[in-house]
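Could you help me review a protein record that somebody else here produced? My question to you is simply how this chain folds and whether the tokens agree. Thanks in advance; the entry in question is below:
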Amino acid sequence: MNTPDQHPTASSPQPGDTRLPTARALASLARAKIFIATHKSASFVSDNDGVYQPLQVGRAVMLERSKDREQSAACNLNSCLTICGDDTGDNISHLNRYLNELTGHYWVWKNFDLRSVEFIGFCHYRRYFLFDQAGQRPTTRWLPCSDYYVFDFIDPDVAHLASATRLNDLLSMSDLIAPKKYDTRHLDPSVTSCRSRFIVMGHCGSLYDAMFAEVATRHPSFNIELAELSRSALHYHGNMFVMRSQDFQEYCDFIFPVLFGLTKRIQDETNPHKQRAPAHLAEFLTSMYLSHMQRTRTDLRCHEVDVAYVLISEPSLTSRQAMSLMSTLAIQLVTWNCLAFVTCGFAGKQGLSDLAVRFDEFGTCVKRPLVYRCVAFARRAFRFLSRRLSRIRTRPTKSPE
């Protein structure tokens, strides 16, 4: 393992490199390998061809505080037993609080046999490419005016739209697959550029300027892409793509030297959100690289596709487990509901909100349609009661005359 001050040399693996047996075992004769970045045990899109491979990122620091708070020891133990991690071989897993899913990108670059597949891809445990471009989409979008569509859980529709069969159909006419670009002005009309978007997210503009200067110095050929970021808020989101293995090696050669320099600048930061600044900048760097590929290679065939956002990703529960949890939550609902509407105090409001969150975490993991409908109804009821309680609590009261 490397310390923050001793980053690995960012160079592509050379023929003859020693590979870990675990990494070799992941390689298959499939045309593509798509790694699903996750920080916990979850339900994943799967296939019979071995295309999808879950990868736990940040395993070296999984018990430390993060934006998601601490994970339970049981949850992490389950992840270690069932999911490949990014903390073996040549890795930067300890930098996950700064780089998020990019520690997984690095692990694949250094430890996976890239020569075993033609294409390498990355998605997230909540976000998957919808390779079936003609398939039906939900009506709810994750981001306003975006091509990110909300699915309650990984149901047959998601599995079909993101299937390896659909991917292979698309790869037959593609060199690069990417999500559709998103204009972040839809989130905040005051945003005028990627730099201003970065600042609106709560980060320091000087760190963005450092990234800009580093790319301009190291890669002068990216000057057009840098200029585009300066005058537009449009870019690729999520560090998601499917590209040829050789292009992936060049992508890593481009992005990691810059990210290591940015990470050194904030290694004393303790705020979990601000620690993630390099990871947010990585989206701009990835966007630059994908745009540069398309501008400089006129023969490159790129397809931009929709993305599924999975609302609830927890592993599936049996019907017995589901009914047991529903009974427990129903009792808590009655208790908190009475307390909330009798006292209209903060405790009641907070408890009801927490209960709604618990239903969100549990709800649609259940595969039984009847149970799922019951849980979905309860979730809607919790949200309605939470909103009503919030209005009651904030309603002005008449002062005594």
The two ends are 71 Å apart (CA to CA). Residues 319-394 form one domain.
